[in-house]
Design a protein that fits this description.
CATH superfamily of chain B: NAD(P)-binding Rossmann-like Domain
Helix content of chain A: 10-25%
Shape of chain A: globular
CATH class of chain A: Alpha Beta
Order of helices and strands of chain B: HEHEHHEHEHEEHHEEH
Chains: A alpha/beta, B alpha/beta, C alpha+beta
Strand order of the largest sheet of chain A: 7-6-5-4-2-3-1-8-9
Number of strands of chain A: 9
Largest sheet of chain B: 8 strands, mixed
CATH topology of chain A: Cytidine Deaminase, domain 2
Number of helices of chain B: 9
Order of helices and strands of chain A: EHEEHEHEEEEE
Helix content of chain B: 25-40%
Shape of chain B: globular
Largest interface: A-B, 35 and 36 residues
Mean pLDDT of chain B: 93
CATH class of chain B: Alpha Beta
Number of helices of chain A: 3
CATH architecture of chain A: 3-Layer(aba) Sandwich
Number of domains of chain B: 1
Mean pLDDT of chain A: 92
Oligomer: heterotrimer
Low-confidence stretches of chain B: none
Structural class of chain A: alpha/beta
Structural class of chain B: alpha/beta
Distance between the termini of chain A: 12 Å
Strand content of chain A: 35-45%
Number of domains of chain A: 1
Radius of gyration of chain A: 15 Å
């Protein structure tokens, strides 16, 4: 499934500002992005509209992981998806230049929690994103498909436009 | 970098690949859109979606770049004229020639990275803007008019509607009273006067803004843009209304429900 | 926005009417609306706009132009609403109100 994730420059700046803040014990911050979806001639459009940051006390203090969120975080994210009829994409940041990718732990954990969003919004795609200082990558779980697919394109819309990921 | 783009290398070492991957949507392939198609092809834009239901006729020949005498005799569809022109400049360009009103092919419109609106009338502009906002697509609109006055006066505009930023209504370009007046009109208004040189100025400016959006060569960030064209004095200046609103957020396209497909099914 | 009761009144004329809001205007989608005798087609998807737009206090849009005994001025063509394309004839001064009454006023143009 060809997918194009879009967000405004303003929203991305807001996300990066939050993800860049230090946390008392978590090495990385994370959040959720609420999206609407649409279909185009090449696949699907995922249109980001709202950033839901993880509050400080939603992180679990577990030194095995850079960032581990608790059930409160998941509950809020699922409620957001339900209330707003939203696709939800988890997002976190790797502080380097160049194309990022998910760690083994990121992938393992994503496979567990992303499909849970289908409990509230089964007809919508959900997924996860990772951003670096100048690039991004993502995975999208499409309804009725067991495995996620790489998000083909990630674009920030504004002056200037930035094509953070372009697989096609 | 390919030799053919060496003169625009200041746009960045990755600009050639970037331009090739971008899809430009051109809604209206008449006097304004035909210029934009030609210039975009020269720059190296690699993907095009062309929307226009009309065929070439003799009254179009005074301004439609790429259209020939033979096209007017044969009534060649305008999108085919544009496709031929684009591919004559860049044979590797991917072109979707859609001989339909754009409203009959939303999925192709939504596949565009940037859309150029080259339509007549405020209602049509407002409608295109709504669909572009729904798909989070920047819209660059151009248009010109010839007014009666001593004895005539040429004017025009280039307006950018950037998702999240001021829209046509925020900028005062489209007003409810203009939409109401057009909506009540009985039938089509008829062909407006149009000339190639004014269309060329506006189209070239629109293409420049487009490239600045993709590969900025300076630190100036327009954010939004409303440039007014005085075709009698040959000036193009920022409209005073834009100066006030350019750094604000849009007041009209604010509802999350206005994004995406309201009838989404997997 | 229409109340649930007002929506249910429309059930007699179409299949599962549903409310939408787009760009601050309120609409009711009327799938498979049954049209008055003499119309071709007899059944069509329609969209009732209960908000002022384009100089009309309310407006009834159709998924296609309707052929009727009367000549109508279809001065709204391919109007994009909710990512579908719609048509409407010129029939003004129907004030907003109870949806079934607004609809009845607009359908008078087809009779």
């Amino acid at each position: 499934m060809n997918s194009h994730f879009k967000l405004t420059v303003t929203l991305l700046d807001h996300v990066i500002a939050d993800l860049s803040r230090p946390h008392p014990f978590a090495a990385e911050r994370a959040g959720f992005i609420g999206c609407k979806v649409s279909r185009n001639r090449e696949g699907i459009l995922i249109l980001a509209h709202t950033y839901v940051p993880l509050q400080d006390d939603w992180y679990a203090d577990d030194q095995r992981y850079g960032c581990f969120f608790n059930a409160d975080a998941m509950r809020v994210a699922m409620q957001f998806a339900l209330t707003n009829d939203a696709s939800v994409f988890h997002i976190h940041m790797h502080e380097h230049r160049g194309r990022p990718w998910f760690s083994r732990i990121d992938l393992r954990e994503s496979r567990k929690f992303v499909p849970d969003f289908w409990n509230v919004r089964p007809n919508l795609p959900h997924g996860t994103l990772v951003v670096s200082t100048d690039s991004a990558a993502g995975l999208c779980w499409y309804p009725s498909e067991n495995k996620p697919t790489k998000i083909s394109r990630i674009t920030t819309v504004g002056f200037p436009m930035k094509f953070l990921e372009r697989l096609t | 970098m390919n030799d053919r783009y060496s003169r625009q290398s200041f746009l960045g070492t990755n600009s050639e690949a970037l331009f090739q991957s971008v899809r430009a949507g051109l809604v209206g392939l008449g006097g304004g859109g035909s210029h934009i198609a030609q210039q975009s092809a020269h720059i190296g834009i690699g993907r095009f979606a062309l929307f226009d239901p009309d065929a070439t006729e003799f009254p179009n020949l005074n301004r439609t770049v790429g259209a020939t005498f033979e096209d007017a005799i044969s009534k060649t569809p305008k999108v085919i004229v544009a496709e031929r022109m684009i591919k004559g400049i860049n044979p590797y360009a991917e072109v979707w020639p859609i001989q339909l009103e754009w409203q009959k092919d939303f999925e192709s419109l939504r596949a565009c990275d940037v859309v150029f609106g080259c339509l007549d009338g405020f209602s049509r502009r407002a409608q295109l803007e709504e669909s572009c906002r729904r798909a989070m697509i920047p819209l660059i609109d151009i248009g010109m008019d010839v007014h009666k006055g001593e004895p005539y006066s040429i004017s025009g505009q280039v307006v950018v509607s950037m998702p999240g930023k001021p829209c046509f209504k925020c900028l005062g370009f489209v007003r409810d009273k203009d939409l109401d007046e057009e909506g009540r009109r009985y039938g089509e208004a008829g062909g407006n006067p149009q000339v190639v040189w004014s269309n060329g100025v506006l189209a070239s400016t629109a293409v420049g803004i487009f490239i600045q959006m993709l590969a900025p060569w300076c630190r100036i960030n327009p954010g939004s843009a409303f440039l007014g064209y005085d075709g009698d004095r040959f000036t193009l200046e920022h409209d005073a209304r834009c100066a006030v609103t350019v750094n604000q957020n849009c007041e009209h396209f604010v509802s999350v429900g206005d994004l995406g497909d309201p009838f989404w099914k997997p | 926005m229409a109340g649930e009761g007002e929506l249910r009144e429309l059930d007699q004329l179409c299949i599962e009417p549903k409310e939408f809001t787009e760009f601050d205007r309120n609409y009711i989608l009327l799938p498979q609306l049954r049209l008055p005798d003499g119309c071709t087609p007899a059944v069509v998807d329609a969209l009732l706009c209960l908000s002022a737009r384009d100089g009309y206090a309310t407006r009834l849009f159709y998924a296609q132009q309707i052929t009727t005994r009367k000549a109508l001025n279809w001065n709204a063509q391919n109007v994009p609403i909710l990512q579908r394309s719609w048509f409407a004839y010129s029939w003004n001064y129907v004030a907003s109100g109870r949806p079934i009454e607004v609809l009845a006023q607009h359908l008078k143009a087809l009779q």
